[in-house]
């Protein structure tokens, strides 16, 4: 019987544009092809101020593959994509404040 490996990566608390990017087919397909792991979006977006109800799961990615290494590589790459987008959002927010006009 072939072995089967699984992992989960919770993405609910990342900025919505990061969640959107990492759940798009254009992002997931190349990672799946490169690693050999299947990636599925599961759960629901739950705002920070709301407590999940019984049976509700926050938004996450379910990763499954034929080897432990394929699952680890996919999870690592997904984390990298999320962190890159998160850093872009943070740097844009910081630079937006620097560009404000001042009245003399």
From TrEMBL:
Source species, domain of life: Eukaryota
Biological source species: Cuscuta europaea
Signal peptide boundaries: none
A cellular component annotation (GO) from this entry: nucleus
Domain ATP-dependent RNA helicase PRP5/DDX46/KHDC4 KH residues, every copy: 6-84
CDD domains given in the database record: KH-I_AtRH42_like
GO MF, any single term: RNA binding
Protein name in the entry: ATP-dependent RNA helicase PRP5/DDX46/KHDC4 KH domain-containing protein
Pfam families: KH_12
Organism classification: Eukaryota, Viridiplantae, Streptophyta, Embryophyta, Tracheophyta
